[in-house]
Amino acid sequence: MSWVTAADRGLAVCEVCGKVGKMAENARCSRCQVRLHSRKPHSIERAWALLLAAFVLYLPANLLPIMETRSLFGVQRDTILSGVVYLWGSGSWVLAIIVFIASIAVPLLKLLSLSLILIGVQRGAPEQSLQSARLYRLLELIGRWSMLDVYVVAILVALVQAQSLATVAPGPGVVAFAAVVVLSMLATMAFDPRLIWGAGSDQQPSERTCEPKPSTTS
Amino acid sequence: MNTLPIACHECDLLLHKAEVPGARGVMLCPRCGAELCRVGPDNLQFLLALTCTALILLLLANLFPVVGLNIQGHHVDTTVFGAARQLWRDDTPIVAGLLVATTVLVPLVELSVLAWLLFPLCSGRRPVAFVPLFRSLQLARPWAMVEVFILGVLVSLVKLSHMADVLLGTAIWCFGALMLVLAVLSTAFDPRALWQAWEEARV
Ligand SMILES: [Zn+2]
Ligand SMILES: [Zn+2]
Description:
The complex is a heterodimer.
Chain A: E1 11-13, E2 20-22, H1 43-63, E3 67-71, E4 74-78, H2 80-89, H3 93-123, H4 129-142, H5 148-159, E5 167-170, H6 172-190
Chain B: E1 5-7, E2 14-16, E3 22-23, E4 26-28, E5 35-38, H1 44-63, E6 67-71, E7 74-78, H2 80-89, H3 93-122, H4 130-140, H5 146-160, E8 165-168, H6 170-188, H7 191-200
């Protein structure tokens, strides 16, 4: 089966209202007057920049303490991993697994799979398109759940204060961790999933161009 | 109407509405499987009612404490803003901002904008600044994280339960109800229906 895209026909879909319009230089949507782009401009470069920043911050996010508990027994510094270990040790296995998935597995898998998608698009691997598209949709869906640990720190910091025997303060790791979550969400948004299926009509034809579409269906 | 082509926003496939196989009100792209559009209950009043309900729940969720603790006779509790204030004092203003933005500010902006757009549209008038506001809705949506916050509260309760009696505050039930209303709202929300109402409305 052959597919005809809007770009093949010199058309572009409006990102805001969804109306399909004629693509030209500086073309605007006939309904909402927003600039039309066949693909988001500089999508891959922006996605890589944000993604690399997220990779860099991933290390301090996991190595630095996200939380410091001061009590009569001294100072205890918790990283994300030690929080999971603590939950596991105290018998809350379900929560330990949830926090492990949300705070450790999801951010890492997100960074890695977005890199794979970007590399796939740049290398040109049309046979992977459907997988990449599904993966991308999954990333959009699950990325937000990594904020879980940031909220946990926020609640603990607010509740465990002077009145009690211990004081909890946020550690530097939680800032880095929040930045990783935000940056990787921004990277996902900067990427245009339509690039998975082919370049747009307003882009330089690169090594990776759409294959010529046969007019008859096979 | 059906002769106008539509294009998949995730793979750029060009289609005519009639060609799309529809399943239970949701039309999926035949190539990449993205959701092309929903045929929701074509009722802007219903959306407006949900939006107003959600706004009230959001207000209540911020008036009452989310969680509380009893430690040796002391009672401590906190609201979302209380937690943000403490984070601010502890020199993590970024985290404080993120907390308030994702649980209060973004949902508040999103719901108010939606109410602002739906109210005139329900009586066949065009809302002021429809296009930029609609765009802001699209940008805001991924940053509202009420459901993640609820899970975060539950995890922190488990962590605290060994050292004190923990109490769920009124606000957590409001957040829970808000989460459900927002879920119904996002399933019933069809952007195309909004644009159609806008085109048909008086200028
Ligand atoms: Zn438009
Ligand atoms: Zn598609």
